[in-house]
Amino acid sequence: MSDERVIDPRDAYTWDGWGTCLSWWANTELGERDDLAAALFGLDTVEVATTGLPGLGLNIVRYNLGACTWTPGSAMVESPAIVRRKQIETFCDGALWNWCADAHQRTMLSKARDAGADTFEMFSVSPPWWMTVNGNPSGAEQGTQDNLEFQYQEEFARFIAAVARRARDEWGIRFASVEPFNEPSLNAWHARQNQEGCHFTLGAQEAVIEYLRRALDEYGLADVLIAASDECHYTDAADTWQKLGESTRQLIDRVNVHAYERDDNGRSRTRLRKAVGETPVWQSEYSDGEPDGMSMALSISRDLRHLRPRAWVCWQPVEALDWGLLDGVYDDQTPNPTGGAPGTLKGQVGGVNTKYYVLAHYTRHIRPAARILDSGHTKTVAAHDPKTRRLTLVTVNNGRGQTVTYNLRNLTENTTTTHVWITDATHNYTRAPDTHTRNGLLELTHPENSITTLEIPDIDLWPARPEEG
Question: Among 60, 189, 257, 439, which has the minimal tally of Cβ within 10 Å of its Cβ?
Answer without folding.
Answer: 439
